[in-house]
C-alpha cells in the first residue's frame, strides 16, 4: 500500500491562486470522493496530486517523498490517472489502448513481454471488456469506452487510481456501470481510488471517505454521514436539502429543494396542498 497526502499546498493558474494551504490525507485502500461546486478547485487538486500540475508552494507527498521530485516512470508505477474526456487515435483497439498501461514497466523498445500480455488480458477481463478486445474505441458505447480506459489504468498495476469525473456525459445506466466497477475493483484488491464526483449522491453511495472543497479549501472531510449534512451543503453548495437515509445501503441521500440564499432572504415558505404553510423539513430515515 502507498500513502498520499498534501502539505501546505498552494496551486495557481498564472497569478490567480486557486488552492491555498491545503492539507489533506487520502485513506489507503479506500474510495475517496472529492466533491464541491463547479469552479471549487476539486479537479485542480486532483491533477496536482497526480503530478499533472505543478504547485505554487507546498508539496504532495507520495510515500513520504515529494511526488514532483520523483521521475515520471517512478510515479507511473505507483499511480494511474484517468482524466476527463480522454482521447485516443482513431482506429485504436481496446487491446492496443490497454497495452499502453504497461509502458512504465517496459525497458527499451522490446515491446510487450509475456508477463505484460498476461496483465493486459487480466485488465480487460476485470473490466468485462473481453468481447470487445479487437474493437476500435469509436465503435463502443460511452460506458464501454470508459471501462476500456479504466482497464488501461489497471494495466499499470498501481496502488492508486485517480479519476476526474469518470461518469461525465454518461447516462444513468452507464454511470452506475462505471461506479459499480470501481467499487468491485476496490473490494477485490483494496486499491486506493480517488475520484472527482459531480453527483453528491453517487459520492455518498460509492465512496468510503469524502472531501468537500470550496474555493480551494477542504471545508469538510470524513465518512459520507459526516460530510453530507445540512450545514456542509449550505456552505459548499449553497442549497437547502433534506438528508434521508437510503433504505438499501444506509448512506445519506441529499434531496435539494431550494437555494440557501432564498431561504435566508425572508422568503415565505410554500403552502402545502391543503393550504397550510409547509412544515419545516427535517432529517428523516426510510424504514
TrEMBL record:
Membrane topology note: Peripheral membrane protein
Localization terms from the record: Cell membrane
Highest taxon of source: Bacteria
Database matches in InterPro entries: AAA+_ATPase, ABC_transporter-like_ATP-bd, ABC_transporter-like_CS, P-loop_NTPase, Siderophore_ABC-ATPase
Sequence ranges assigned to domain ABC transporter in this UniProt record: 4-240
Keywords: ATP-binding, Cell membrane, Ion transport, Iron, Iron transport, Membrane, Nucleotide-binding, Transport
Region of interest (Disordered), residue spans: 268-287
GO MF annotation terms: ATP binding; ATP hydrolysis activity
Any Pfam family: ABC_tran
Predominant location category: membrane
PROSITE patterns for this protein: ABC_TRANSPORTER_1, ABC_TRANSPORTER_2
SUPFAM superfamilies linked: P-loop containing nucleoside triphosphate hydrolases (SSF52540)
Keyword Iron appears in the UniProt entry: yes
GO cellular component: plasma membrane
One GO biological process term: iron ion transport
PANTHER family xrefs: IRON(3+)-HYDROXAMATE IMPORT ATP-BINDING PROTEIN FHUC (PTHR42771:SF2)
Protein name: ABC transporter ATP-binding protein
Organism whose genome encodes this protein: Paenibacillus oralis
Amino acid at each position: 500500500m502507498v500513502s498520499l497526502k498534501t502539505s501546505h499546498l498552494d496551486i495557481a493558474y498564472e497569478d490567480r491562486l486557486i488552492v491555498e494551504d491545503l492539507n489533506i490525507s487520502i485513506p489507503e485502500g479506500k474510495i475517496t470522493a472529492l466533491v464541491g461546486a463547479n469552479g471549487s478547485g476539486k479537479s485542480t487538486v486532483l491533477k496536482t496530486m497526480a503530478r499533472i500540475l505543478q504547485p505554487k508552494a507546498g508539496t504532495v507527498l507520495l510515500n513520504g517523498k515529494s511526488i514532483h521530485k520523483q521521475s515520471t516512470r517512478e510515479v507511473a508505477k505507483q499511480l494511474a490517472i484517468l482524466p476527463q474526456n480522454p482521447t485516443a487515435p482513431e482506429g485504436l483497439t481496446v487491446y492496443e489502448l490497454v497495452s499502453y498501461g504497461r509502458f512504465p514497466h517496459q525497458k527499451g523498445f522490446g515491446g510487450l513481454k509475456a508477463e505484460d500480455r498476461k496483465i493486459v488480458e487480466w485488465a480487460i477481463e476485470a473490466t468485462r471488456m473481453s468481447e470487445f478486445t479487437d474493437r476500435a474505441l469509436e465503435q463502443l458505447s460511452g460506458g464501454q469506452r470508459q471501462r476500456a480506459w479504466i482497464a488501461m489504468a489497471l494495466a499499470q498495476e498501481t496502488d492508486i487510481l485517480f479519476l476526474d469525473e469518470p461518469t461525465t456525459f454518461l447516462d444513468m445506466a452507464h454511470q452506475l456501470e462505471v461506479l459499480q466497477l470501481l467499487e468491485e475493483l476496490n473490494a477485490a484488491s483494496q486499491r486506493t481510488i480517488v475520484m472527482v464526483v459531480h453527483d453528491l449522491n453517487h459520492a455518498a453511495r460509492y465512496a468510503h471517505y469524502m472531501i468537500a472543497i470550496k474555493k480551494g479549501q477542504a471545508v469538510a472531510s470524513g465518512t459520507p454521514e459526516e460530510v453530507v449534512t445540512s450545514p456542509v451543503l449550505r456552505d459548499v453548495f449553497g442549497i437547502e436539502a433534506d438528508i434521508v437515509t437510503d433504505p438499501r445501503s444506509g448512506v445519506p441521500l441529499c434531496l435539494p429543494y431550494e437555494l440557501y440564499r432564498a431561504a435566508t432572504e425572508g422568503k415565505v415558505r410554500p403552502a402545502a396542498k391543503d393550504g397550510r404553510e409547509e412544515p419545516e423539513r427535517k432529517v428523516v430515515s426510510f424504514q
